[in-house]
Fold this protein.
Amino acid sequence: MQSGLPDDVLSNEPIMPEVPIKANKAIPITIGVCLILGSLLMGVSAYGNLTTGTLSSEEATALADSLNLQGANLTGTEVIDYFTELQENGYFTTLGIIESLAAIVLLAGGGLMIMGKRLGVWVGAGGAALMLVDAGFGMTILAGVESPDPLLSLSMKLVSAFFVGCGLFCLALPFIPLLVASGRAALD
């Protein structure tokens, strides 16, 4: 029998209805808030690095005493000399500038994500990349300055490692809405 209709219309198989994907605006908003929190963390760190002056003898002695409790053999003068050498090598200024830029870019990326703009994904990823660059520069400068005790340089390197972890987290975070269909639908 010839009906003029395609064969699949006359088959007895059930046809799956197409379910429309609803935009879930909570996904990019949540990611945007997390990026803004990351920008605040970077801003505080940038402020700390840019306003770091020379350590007072009381601060250096307190730092040396706390590291000595963990097995180091430091004096306050050695700590002051180490931080002075870091400052002369541009450690605090370099990290402060990069962290300031990262904070601004992460803030912009978070704001764009909250507004539902797809550009926020790429801006947020750029801010996270700056965090990774910051950690790389920090570790490079630390490697070039000889520490009076391994525990002192280890504590500084742990801060850089923390920023590597934060940078990787913030690098992956903006791409989550692109992986989820409802999150992708919420972005312009």
